[in-house]
Amino acid sequence: MVFIEKGQRIDIEQIKSKTRLSGQALANKNKRDQELARILSGQDDRILLVIGPCSSDNEDAVLEYARRLSELQKKVEDRVFIVMRVYTAKPRTNGDGYKGLVHQPDTSKAPSLINGIQAVRQLHYRVITETGLTTADEMLYPTNLRLVDDLVSYHAVGARSVEDQEHRFVASGIDAPVGMKNPTSGNLGVMFNAIYAAQNMKTFLFHNQEVETSGNPLAHAILRGSIDEYGKNRPNFYYEILLDAIANYEKLGLENPFIIIDTNHDNSGKRYMEQIRIVRQTLINRAWSEKIKQTVRGFMIESYLEDGRQNEPEVFGKSITDPCLGWDNTVQLIEEIYDALAK
């Protein structure tokens, strides 16, 4: 096997030094991180929303969205806690398609990982420092965790990564919540094995060193639906499935039972307006069952400035990956969640 070295070597610490949080921004992030931990551990009963664009492809558009979301957060903060999706690396099954900001910081130019790393940190940094929100990202590459470990408040492990040993082990050493998605097969056992692994102490090699983790008690489940052998979507936000997932938590004796419903992907079949119906159905399920209400306490929603998606970045604030709810629909949905929680 031959690897061809391309370009300059990356000095991570030098890149991080330009975008380190300090002062009021750092204090605000620490405060919000503590609030988030209390929500995950059940000490705070607010609903968690991990919401934002499918992919953060344009810094200006993402920041405009963040500014709007920050103002909306202030209006609903007593019942809803928002962490913004700033997803900068996209999984690609066959390697084709837009791979995220970390690969291609400017969609009109060729990929550049050096510039991509800087763009990723700058975007998380600007969202935090300019809007007061904290951010979520997908842990697509575990070895890249240290690029953003001081900025990102919530990490997600995707459906194609959840079976990977390194993702599970690295998640066990993260001092922040990590959401584990069910795999595309829909096998909940795989997801719960990942949560179990992440919640327990691990010893392994990481960055050429032997490391030991203490386990991450805030590792939890994200239900994102699945695809059967015929390519048909199989949603898993239904009442009986939620009870089955809760039973798995109890069976394995996992800490801090917490379930997030991913309203897009294979739950919606990537029909972005279906996200509204899925939220509504989940709120009904919570009203019907105290057990579901105590455990299903979050939504992951794909939302941007404009409805839908486009193949090329022609419309400002419109997704170039999965279709998203536009801003007007997003406001209405969050207000609907807020009102429902008062009943």
From TrEMBL:
Keywords: Amino-acid biosynthesis, Aromatic amino acid biosynthesis, Transferase
Annotated catalysed reactions: D-erythrose 4-phosphate + phosphoenolpyruvate + H2O = 7-phospho-2-dehydro-3-deoxy-D-arabino-heptonate + phosphate
Residues of the signal peptide: none
Ranges where the DAHP synthetase I/KDSA domain occurs: 34-333
Enzyme class: transferase
Enzyme Commission code(s) on record: 2.5.1.54
Keyword Ribosomal protein: no
A biological process from GO: aromatic amino acid family biosynthetic process
An MF annotation (GO) of this entry: 3-deoxy-7-phosphoheptulonate synthase activity
Any Pfam family: DAHP_synth_1
InterPro entries hit by this protein: Aldolase_TIM, DAHP1/KDSA, DAHP_synth_1
Pathway this chain belongs to: Metabolic intermediate biosynthesis; chorismate biosynthesis; chorismate from D-erythrose 4-phosphate and phosphoenolpyruvate: step 1/7
GO cellular component: cytoplasm
Function: Stereospecific condensation of phosphoenolpyruvate (PEP) and D-erythrose-4-phosphate (E4P) giving rise to 3-deoxy-D-arabino-heptulosonate-7-phosphate (DAHP).
Annotated family: Belongs to the class-I DAHP synthase family.
Name recorded for this polypeptide: Phospho-2-dehydro-3-deoxyheptonate aldolase
